Every structure is written in structure tokens, then in C-alpha cells.
Amino acid sequence: MKLSTRSRYGTRMMLDLAQHYDQGPVQMGDISKRENISVKYLEQLIIPLKKANFIKSVRGPKGGHMLAKPPEKITVGDIVGILEGRISLSNCIENPEVCDRTTGCLTRGVWEEATKAMYDKLNSVTLSKMINESGCN
């Protein structure tokens, strides 16, 4: 399994906002330059994160975007969940009806456990933890 560009770039954008959390709104152009992600792409990522109340926007000359919650309250799992929806290592985990072998499958349990382990890890890592562990605060 591979995370999409949406999740990877969305996490980078959220980390950038977290690093500037106490400095007021951040403009998309600034994030774009620091993260080397196009403004157009960032604008697409921000929409679902705003709808989920993880980002708020401020209008005006000193406007921009900022986290709507403290960085210690936002996990990588939150971001991936918003930008990807629920993802699993195998289609049969979320939709058992897609496979006629689901009830007697010997491998399904492994894929289910691995999916749970992935989400447990993503949900245990907050933006503030990532910043603190990187030494970039």
C-alpha cells in the first residue's frame, strides 16, 4: 500500500501550519515556497480540511490559513482519514462482499491486523510530536 500524494502533501501542509501555529494566519504562497507544492494543489487540499474544522481561514491583507485546533490535537491519522477516506490493505477488509472467500479466507485476518496497526500508528502521531521529534520547533 502506498499513501497518495494528497495525504503526503496534506500532512506537509498541516505540519507547516503547525510550525507557525502561534504566528497568526499563513498565506498559501508561503507554504507553497517552503514545501515546494503548487498553490493550486494546496487550495484543493485545504477544502476538505476546512470542512472537517481542522483549518480556518482569515480574510484580508494579513489573512491566510491557520490550524483550527492545537497541533497536539491533530494526528496524521486525522489528516489521512480526511484526505483519503478509510483505506485498507485489502478491499475485503472494508467490503467483505467483494470476495466470495471472505468467511474461510486464511489471509484476511493478517490484512485486517496490518490495517489496524497502520491506523493505530497514524493515530498515535500528532503534528506537535512530529515537530518536537524533528527538532524544527
UniProtKB/TrEMBL annotation:
GO terms for molecular function: DNA binding; DNA-binding transcription factor activity. Coiled coil: none annotated. The keyword DNA-binding applies. InterPro entries: Tscrpt_reg_Rrf2, WH-like_DNA-bd_sf, WH_DNA-bd_sf. It comes from the Bacteria. GO terms for cellular component: cytosol. PANTHER family: HTH-TYPE TRANSCRIPTIONAL REGULATOR ISCR, WINGED HELIX-TURN-HELIX TRANSCRIPTIONAL REGULATOR, RRF2 FAMILY. NCBIfam families: rrf2_super (TIGR00738). This is Rrf2 family transcriptional regulator. It comes from Candidatus Desulfacyla euxinica.
